Amino acid sequence: MTIVLNEPGIAGLAGAGDALRAWQDDRTPLQLHPGDLGWAWARGAERLAAAVRTWSVDGRIVAVGFLDAPDLLRLTTAPELRQDEDLARRLRADLDAPERGVLPPGRVGLEVPDGALLREVLMLAGWNLDEPWTPLRHDLAEPMEVSGLRVEVVGPQTAAARTAVHRSAFGSPRFTEEGWHVLAAGPVYADARCLIGYDDQDRAVAAVTVWSAGPGKPGLLEPMGVHADHRGRGHGTTISIAAAVALREMGASSALVCTPSSNTAAIATYRAAGFEPSPERLDLSRAA
Questions:
Q1: What is the largest CA-CA distance in the chain?
Q2: Considering Cα of 206, then 209, then 214, then 220, what sign does the dihedral take?
Q3: Is the preceding omega at residue 223 within 30 degrees of 0, hence cis?
Q4: Can you give the pTM of this predicted structure?
Q5: How far is the CA of 118 from the CAs of 34, 67, 125, in angstroms?
Q6: How many whole angstroms separate alpha carbon 231 and alpha carbon 225?
Q7: What is the DSSP letter of 81?
Q8: Which residues is 277 bridged to in the sheet?
Q9: Rounded to an integer, what is the distance from CA 194 to the centroid of its chain?
């Protein structure tokens, strides 16, 4: 088969998102989710488009890669092609050739689903196992209740509160009120919600964004955070339960989240909210 590498541009982002949406399944390992592209839309459509690569066969997208950082690619493929040797070898060739515009020279990282032949091909080519991550999943078959916080869906009038919680939680100035409006205007946000949790003194103490991939498919939490002044009071657990409730209302089959295995506090928070850890997944890296 002839495999074509593309930079889809802004016009092609919808197609990449549609492919990711179609590939989500509770029977497959955690993988790049349309919500990952949706969250990155806060940087602007042009920057996101510059970070996305697709591989196609006869016009059909068979793999999507997202440069979450200049030296970190998150990549997934159509599930039925995870063991396809032609695709694995073509992806490896493109990843290892900086002139093809996928990854730069030098040390780089790669996220790829467990069970993909590409992992074996890259390891044989000299790539190494790298940072371990813990995926967690919450089955949404049964209803849940939220207690301890008043949880509201974020709209334009509360965007400032939502972004303030995020900046405090992550110690980063990047997510501004303007960025939220860019995020909310993106097409992927049509299947998303931002939630804020308020304590009994009406202070915004926790926030989360949830992303649906459509009815009957797993949804994603990306990101969840607790205001630095209000940690240690169970707010992270409560807002994570609220996220699962919201995804269930949106028709999702399960709620997914993934965190570095070294972040034991986050793992404990998600487990307290009913999320069950899946087997640890290791990124891959190529030495300089």
A1: 61
A2: negative
A3: yes
A4: 0.96
A5: 21, 17, 10
A6: 10
A7: G
A8: 136
A9: 15
pLDDT digits (tens, 9 = 90+) for 278-288: 999 999 999 97
Strand partners, 65: 53, 75
Among candidates 6, 25, 105, which has minimal Cα distance to 63? 6
Q: State in Å, rounded, how far the first CA of the chain is from the last one.
A: 32
CB 275 within 8 A of CB 220: no
Phi-psi region of 21 (alpha: psi -120 to 50; beta: other; left: phi over 0): alpha
Spatial CB neighbours of 8, under 8 Å, sequence gap ≥ 6: 15, 16, 49, 52, 53, 54
Pairing between β-strand 72-77 and β-strand 108-111 as defined by DSSP bridges = parallel
Return the bridge partners of 55, or none.
Answer: 5, 63
Q: What is the mean pLDDT of each run of 10 residues along the chain (288 residues)?
A: 94 96 94 97 96 97 97 97 98 97 97 96 97 98 96 98 98 95 96 98 98 98 98 97 98 98 97 97 94
Q: Are 273 and 240 in contact (CB under 8 A)?
A: yes
Instruction: Give pLDDT, residue 1.
Output: 79
- Whole-angstrom distance, CA of residue 22 vs CA of residue 169: 32
Question: For residue 64, what is the enclosing H or E element?
Answer: strand 60-69
Instruction: List the structure tokens of 121.
Output: 């091909």
Residue 98 CB coordination number (10 Å)? 13
